[in-house]
Amino acid sequence: MNRDTDYSFGPQAGEPDIDVAELVEFLAGQVVDDPAGVQVSRQGQTLLIRVGEGEEGRLIGRQGRVIQAIRTLARSATPPRARLNVDLDGPRSAQGSGVQGKGGFQGRRERRS
Fold first, then answer.
1. How would you class 32 by CB atoms within 10 Å of its CB: exposed for 0-12, middle for 13-18, buried for 19 or more?
2. Predicted local confidence at residue 11, as pLDDT
3. CA angle 23, 90, 63 (to 5 degrees)
4. String of b and e for 46-74 (b: at least 16 CB within 10 Å)?
5. pTM reported for the whole predicted model
6. For 81-113, b where at least 16 C-beta lie within 10 A, e where not — what string?
7. In degrees rounded to 5, what are phi and psi of residue 28?
8. What residues in the chain have per-residue pLDDT under 50?
9. At residue 2, what are phi and psi to the nearest 5 degrees?
10. What pLDDT sits at residue 102?
């Protein structure tokens, strides 16, 4: 075993720097039906992904697994102590958000006697 092996993370001498926004845009483009409709913008420590209408579900995935995998890969491409958030950009529907709308938990039901 060679004890001189360098196990440090991040780009080494001669390796290109990774643009995390481009990485996220590439990964999101591989998941959706229309890769040309993917846009990634930066607001402070947050990368916002915007996709075409109706494609949000593909990007989120079952139980949020796809977006969580994209977040994990994006964070692994940043320096160890850097903070980075990845989120979907765009309007969220009122249904399911708990703000207002039909369905969902409405409080305690009264017992019928």
1. buried
2. 53
3. 70
4. ebbbbbbeebbeebbeeeeebbeebbeeb
5. 0.66
6. eeebebeeeeeeeeeeeeeeeeeeeeeeeeeee
7. -65, -35
8. 1, 5-9, 14, 94-105
9. -90, 115
10. 45
